[in-house]
Amino acid sequence: MSDESNESQPSGETRAVRRLRARLAESRQLHELTDDPLLQAVHLERFRTSVTRSMWFFLALGLGFTTTGVHEFLAGHLTPADPMWWGAWLVEPGLAGILVTLLRWEAEMLSRGLAVDAKPVLWLKRLLLGATLITNVWASLRPASGEVNSGMVFLHVVIPLVVFFIAEVMPVIQHRCNNARDQALAVAQPAASPALRPTPSTSTAERPPAAPRTPVKLPAHLQQQLAEKAAQVRKEGRDVTSADVQAAVNVPDAYAVRLADQLNAA
């Protein structure tokens, strides 16, 4: 009789079958854990952090290149003996510092669910990046020494544009990742506190009271948009829905449901 037969159980299961059953049980447990909404929310937050760091790194590289173009524009005709030759190296880092500070502020506001759509913010970014683009292109088209190099002209046009679009895309990345994380947390919220669920042996009187939900707060201009939408919906003789809320303001699904409840309760 073979070894496989000797290792069979009374039910007829062999060692190979038992091994596969163990692997199947392990796979089910891993799938259950990896599919948990809280784990997905943590993964999304780490992914957002990783992508943001990469974008910051490449933004810094681009700004390092554009610094040379700004210096060439301002002091290409000077020599290191002139103080302005040294001072010109500080112009682009100064402008870039303002841009980086602005982007950090945008990222923090978006991570807290607050929209950043004020026109002064947008115009300041465009002014900073537009100045970098113009000075780099001008310096490559009118070099202080030597002939015009088509390759350098191309780089001095493309790299400032890439820097500009990185600055525009970073808030979008933050916003989309935060929406995905909030949706995962909204799914996880009902299952986050199983101890509060009544068991068959628990009476109604013994159930702990539900925790009050904190009202969702929005900036004044978004509140105005939402109020106008709510007034329009009420004129139609119906309650405000989460779809109505998202048509007025860009918020995650979980926030839209809570805002609709607040408006209907009011």
TrEMBL record:
UniProtKB keywords: Membrane, Transmembrane, Transmembrane helix
Residue stretches of biased makeup (Low complexity): 189-208
Annotated region described as Disordered, given as residue ranges: 189-215
Superkingdom: Bacteria
TM region positions: 56-78, 84-103, 123-141, 153-173
Protein name, entry field: Uncharacterized protein
Organism per entry: Saccharothrix espanaensis (strain ATCC 51144 / DSM 44229 / JCM 9112 / NBRC 15066 / NRRL 15764)
